[in-house]
Amino acid sequence: MTQAERRDPEGDLIEVIAGFRHNPLGFVRYAFPWGEPGTELADETGPRPWQIETLNIIAEALSADDIEGALRIATASGHGIGKSALVSWVILWGLATAPLTKVVITANTGDQLRTKTWPEVSKWFNLLICRHWFKFEATSIARRNSSGSKEWRCDAATWSENNTAAFAGLHNKGRRIILLFDEASQIADKVWEVAEGALTDEDTEILWLVFGNPTENTGRFRECFAGGRFAHRWSPRQIDSREVPGTNKGEIDKWIADYGEDSDFVRVRVKGQFPRGGSMQFIDGDLVDEAANREAVSHLRQPLVMGVDVARFGDDQQVIVFRRGLDARTIPTLKFRGLDLVSLSGKVAEQAMLHGAVGVFIDEGGMGAGVVDMVRKMLPGRLVIGVNFGGKADRYTMGGDLPLVADKAAEMWAGMRLWLKTGAIEKDPELKAELTGRQYGFDTHNAIRLERKEDMKKRGLSSPDVADGLALTFAYPVADQPADTRFDVQGIAAAPVLQSDYDPHADL
Fold this sequence. Notes:
Elements: H1 3-6, H2 9-18, H3 24-31, H4 49-63, E1 71-77, H5 83-97, E2 102-107, H6 110-127, E3 134-136, E4 140-143, E5 153-156, H7 165-168, E6 176-182, H8 189-198, E7 205-212, E8 235-239, H9 249-259, H10 264-271, H11 285-293, E9 304-309, E10 318-324, E11 327-328, E12 334-336, H12 341-355, E13 359-363, H13 368-378, E14 383-387, H14 408-419, E15 424-425, H15 429-437, E16 440-442, E17 448-450, H16 453-458, H17 465-472
Parallel strand pairs: 1-7, 1-8, 2-5, 2-6, 6-7, 9-13, 11-15, 13-14
Antiparallel strand pairs: 3-4, 4-5, 9-10, 10-12, 16-17
Helix pairs in contact: 5-6, 9-10, 12-13, 14-17
């Protein structure tokens, strides 16, 4: 038998992979088919510079003789830098190079973990040279043909503040533990605290890596960085998307033009810097929950107004929302898809007459102008106003040329946010998701500018059609009906008039 015949390719592979135990960069360069024709990496030459630096930090820490406790790396970044790829490499390197390694990964939401993070892990797993050693499933990766398969594994775990068991049982004494947080800025402090207590095994390789856009100016992720109370325990990194090869520089330039170089939106989404203010979330969930559970109270003399969001054909909805004073629940919201402009106009006029609406505010952007014209003809004598979301904020300014809000959309949403403190809305999960999902930034004049719908969709969110319909009811105030107004059986009163004696942004 020749020497070539005696060779054991599988044994050679095991030996080579084992040699990368403390060399994650070497593993990444060896274990994936960089530059190989016919593969997803045919046009790729290897990791990006910031990824190389992070992998080298891991290698240096694991090779040091005086490492104490867990190696902690916190990375705050803009969009598109390849953090999910790095997360995948760390998982696969950890499992492949050390027996009985235990890995747990989580993200800010179950949806993020299921639809964004785990599919990226799946992609790299399918490119892995030793993938046949492991079994990949919907929420786990486990070692095949091993008596320790229950311990030698990675689990994708969702979290809640009331169920942190997955992060309390991370002990793996004498072996290796890897804990990964994706979109860590929005993971609850309680989860961090439980994980902290679990990572205490002696003589164990412990890696805790957290990644995310720095959307929150408070919380444990923020405290990993300069000025934070836990910064001394972490190796913090802030990555600017503009400095990373392969990011969409054209889109980044558009963001800077739209929001301003030094706006919070660009700081968070591009520069990897924390916002000057608090959360980038414009309306918080508690405010929405309180409005959904509050008793709906209104008076007949308060005008009934309608907000009409005119969606384009496609995924977006056409929506009619009703509000009388503090009550946006009693008359259910109407949602349609695919109506032509004539049919939608007919629905709007029909509902206005049916319920006695005295004010109708219609999104006139794009095709909406046609709906405004038709509804005006169908409802002579009533207040029908077209509203341009991108138009100038025309009801409230501060400091002369320095507007508090940058456009009409931000003005209406600010009025809606103030109203939610006392108003009542439907218990509609879709409405809640849309109200709480939209983020904001500041332009160069420090005026509030809402996140664009295009950017929401890139984050996996739908267009906020229902929320915009409700926001339209705050486009302009409509006066209460005079005490001597006569109402018919449908509640229809005389034509209303505009008033502008209140400030919907007093809480900002």
